[in-house]
């Protein structure tokens, strides 16, 4: 089969298959496209990779740097700051005093763990010369220094606050995010599939930010300050008494039920994310962004602020809140959430997005229509506002409690949210890891208070307030089931596990199937357990599970199937030497950005491997230029057997050697056709990136698809000569295609795929 036909064959594959023979073998071949954009030797990408950071720039948090509670060691993560909030990093063990339930504890382990350091780098977010976004940057678990989740509580944010939060999130991604940060932006009002949303890719985070909108079921209304300031002259739909003071809106039963669900939804989202963060690496922190998170929420049929006039024109004020008929207390869930954070070594911060509350009464003494108000004493006005102040304070209860118990901070009473976020991030530059050996009474299943004192004047220390006397081993639940293990692997942001996998999801659209993700999953057969059958065959059974997550963790599609492999002779030997490829399709119902995860479980050994890929599905109904996924091939195999396996290895494994030609194929969708020739006028530019930096940018070359049967689905291919001096590592090929007949931005489309250069 000619290599020029392998994408055409890929589009014709069945819905699911396992390939042990060459992936593209034994199918009819299509003619090779005559005109291809090629990179001449003089344009071959040169080695220009950035220097590796020094150890001081990229400290890695290893197993000895995590907080743990065992019978032999209790460890605390302690942050020490001066009066201006700057961290003190030069202390020794002699500068600290640790107490458990008031009893001093001898320090046995001590170290300072830096997690910040290098300034924020925007190179991964900066557009290359073509204005196309830079491709994703892969992050290995060993490279993670900080794991940060920003919980956007859209169930507790007003529409006004949402407008302030989105610029805050953009600023965080652009200026606060550092190399080695693993970040997720999660909305409490969506389907919270937490772990797979953690990423080092700024593009994915910006897409998550664009999805942040006011939630109609929010506990807050349109304005964040309406409940913290009483304007006695503001129009109101309901007025009570001669004083003219407006009533608060009376919530109906639907509104009250929605509010109750919203509060529980926020707490459940926090709990779910904390459970998942337990196994993630690095210094872990959660930032709660909300207008209001009260520990106890009241649902009243009538909440009325009323002025009672007295005879004789005197002014005597009283405040009544009547008709409370229900409440929701979160005291017990809050305690459990705090324990989850402590056991998972997660520090929680809170940002009160209401800013500096204007708790005041607007009074015009010259307005004779409200003599009772204008005649109030300061004490009477203060008494009238007490419920408002209490409501403001109660809205900070959850974030304040969680931050105190886990060693974090609560940012409040500031309108400069960017500065508040910067203070939070400065607090995460490092921490002291201090350990002591627990006594015989520590693990009595009761709560033990922890206090840390810094002896050096002018400094203060923050850490978790305590823990329950249960070891980490005892705190863990029963061993997870096989299904739970698979789900955990699917949600992990890293491609990890006991089975080595390589995932290549390709977005394609055909007249028969519509938009689908056609995936090539390469499996290392040496990681499977084969049994020897009486007939000489070797048998293994695997379960393949795939899930597509949308931008807020909701499941947009899933697939599960069990495969039994029964192979013998040279086919078995070849499978062990080269692996095999599973090919399957998953329909995509609508356009958007998705995280695609696949897990493989070996039935005999229970080993699990997982892999994931970020995929953007364009909306072809908009008649805008778009590209399919990119399939790769290349190389010049030395013998026929290697040549037969070449296409499979190239497309599924995406591993090449320096100096090899890199061949690629894709489809161009919605290209405009010239009225005179009935053919499109396209150009294509190939670019290479490494670690988010462009290392090669070719010139735009004409792209003239051959055998064009459908102008809306034009096949295309090209070839790029890999420079022989390129160092080994992960690279990304990005294609930028331009339609000269289209108008404006509708005439440019980009697509990328990552691959590896090996020696």
- Which regions have little confidence, pLDDT < 50, spanning 5+ residues? 11-17, 19-63, 117-132, 226-252, 298-327, 365-371, 636-646
Shape: globular
Classified in CATH, the superfamily of the domain at 142-226 and 250-359 and 387-426 is von Willebrand factor, type A domain
The total of beta strands comes to 36
Any overview of this molecule?
By secondary structure, the chain is an alpha+beta fold. Among the domains are: 1-12 and 29-55 and 620-759, Immunoglobulin-like (Sandwich); 70-115 and 430-470, Immunoglobulin-like; 142-226 and 250-359 and 387-426, 3-Layer(aba) Sandwich (Rossmann fold), CATH 3.40.50.410. Helix 2 (159-176) links the parallel strand 6 and strand 7. Helix 2 runs antiparallel to helix 3, helix 2 crosses helix 9 and helix 4 (253-277) packs parallel to helix 5 (331-343). The longest helix has 25 residues, at 253-277. The radius of gyration is 31 Å and the shape is globular. The model is unreliable at 11-17, 19-63, 117-132, 226-252, 298-327, 365-371 and 636-646 (pLDDT under 50).
Keyphrases for this structure?
alpha+beta, globular, 36 strands, about 750 residues, six-stranded mixed sheet, Immunoglobulin-like, 13 helices
Summarize the structure.
The chain is α+β, with helices and mostly antiparallel strands. It contains 13 helices and 36 strands. About 19% of the residues have low confidence.
């Amino acid at each position: 089969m000619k290599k020029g036909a392998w994408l055409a064959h890929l589009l014709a594959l069945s819905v699911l298959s396992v390939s042990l023979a060459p992936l593209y073998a034994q199918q009819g071949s299509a003619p090779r496209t005559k005109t291809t954009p090629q990179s001449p030797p003089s344009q071959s990408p040169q080695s220009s990779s950035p220097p590796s950071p020094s150890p001081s720039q990229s400290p890695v948090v290893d197993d000895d740097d995590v907080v743990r509670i065992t019978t032999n060691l209790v460890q605390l993560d302690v942050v020490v700051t001066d009066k201006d909030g700057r961290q003190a990093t030069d202390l020794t063990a002699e500068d600290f005093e640790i107490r458990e339930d008031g009893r001093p504890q001898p320090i046995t382990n001590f170290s300072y763990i830096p997690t910040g350091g290098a300034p924020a780098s925007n190179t991964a977010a900066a557009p290359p010369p073509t204005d196309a976004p830079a491709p994703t940057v892969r992050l290995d678990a060993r490279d993670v220094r900080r794991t940060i989740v920003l919980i956007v509580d859209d169930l507790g944010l007003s529409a006004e606050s949402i407008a302030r939060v989105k610029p805050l999130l953009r600023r965080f991604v652009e200026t606060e995010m550092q190399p080695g940060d693993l970040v997720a932006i999660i909305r409490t009002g969506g389907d919270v599939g937490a772990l797979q949303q953690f990423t080092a890719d700024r593009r994915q985070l910006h897409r998550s930010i664009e999805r942040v909108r006011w939630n109609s079921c929010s506990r807050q209304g349109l304005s964040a300050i309406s409940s913290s300031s009483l304007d006695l002259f503001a129009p109101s739909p309901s007025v009570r008494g001669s004083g003219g003071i407006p009533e608060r809106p009376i919530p109906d039963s639907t509104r009250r039920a929605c509010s109750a669900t919203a509060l529980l939804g926020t707490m459940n989202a926090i709990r779910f994310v904390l459970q998942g963060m337990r196994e993630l690496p690095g210094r872990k922190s959660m930032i709660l962004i909300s207008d209001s998170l009260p520990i106890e929420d009241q649902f009243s049929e009538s909440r009325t602020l009323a002025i009672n006039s007295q005879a004789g024109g005197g002014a005597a004020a009283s405040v009544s809140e009547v008709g409370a008929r229900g409440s929701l207390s979160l005291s017990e869930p809050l305690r459990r959430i705090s324990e989850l954070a402590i056991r998972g070594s997660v520090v929680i911060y809170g940002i009160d997005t209401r800013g500096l509350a204007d708790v005041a009464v607007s009074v015009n003494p010259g307005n004779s229509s409200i003599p009772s108000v204008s005649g109030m004493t300061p004490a009477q006005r203060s008494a009238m506002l007490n419920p408002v102040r209490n409501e403001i304070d109660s809205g900070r209860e959850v974030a304040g409690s969680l931050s105190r118990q886990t060693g974090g901070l609560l940012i409040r009473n500031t309108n400069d949210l960017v500065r508040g976020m910067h203070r939070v991030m400065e607090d995460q530059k490092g921490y002291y890891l201090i350990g002591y050996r627990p006594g015989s009474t520590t693990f009595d299943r009761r709560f033990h208070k922890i206090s840390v004192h810094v002896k050096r004047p002018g400094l203060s220390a923050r850490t978790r307030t305590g823990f329950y006397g249960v070891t980490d081993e005892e705190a863990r639940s029963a061993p997870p089931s096989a299904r739970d293990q698979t789900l955990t692997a699917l949600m992990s942001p890293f491609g990890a596990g006991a089975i080595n996998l390589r995932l290549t999801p390709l977005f394609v659209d055909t007249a028969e199937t519509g938009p689908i993700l056609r995936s090539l999953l390469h499996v290392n057969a040496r990681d499977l357990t084969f049994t020897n059958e009486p007939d000489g065959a070797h048998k293994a059974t695997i379960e393949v599970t795939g899930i597509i997550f949308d931008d807020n963790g909701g499941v947009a599609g899933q697939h599960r199937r069990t495969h039994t492999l029964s192979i013998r002779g040279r086919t078995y030997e070849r499978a062990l030497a080269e692996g095999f490829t599973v090919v399957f399709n998953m329909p995509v119902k609508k356009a958007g950005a998705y995280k695609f995860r696949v897990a493989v479980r070996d039935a005999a050994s229970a080993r699990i491997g997982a892999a994931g890929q970020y995929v953007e599905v364009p909306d072809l109904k908009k008649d805008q230029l778009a590209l399919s996924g990119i399939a790769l091939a290349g190389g010049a195999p030395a013998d026929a057997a290697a040549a037969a396996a070449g296409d499979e290895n190239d497309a599924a494994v995406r591993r090449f050697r320096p100096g090899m030609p890199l061949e690629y194929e894709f489809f161009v969708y919605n290209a405009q056709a010239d009225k005179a020739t009935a053919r499109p006028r396209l150009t294509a530019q190939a670019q290479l990136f490494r670690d988010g930096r462009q290392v090669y940018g070719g010139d735009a070359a004409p792209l003239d698809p051959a055998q064009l049967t459908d102008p809306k689905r034009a096949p295309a291919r090209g070839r790029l000569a890999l420079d022989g001096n390129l160092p080994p590592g992960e690279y990304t090929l990005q294609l930028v295609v331009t339609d000269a007949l289209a108008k404006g931005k509708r005439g440019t489309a980009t697509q990328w795929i990552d691959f590896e250069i090996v020696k």
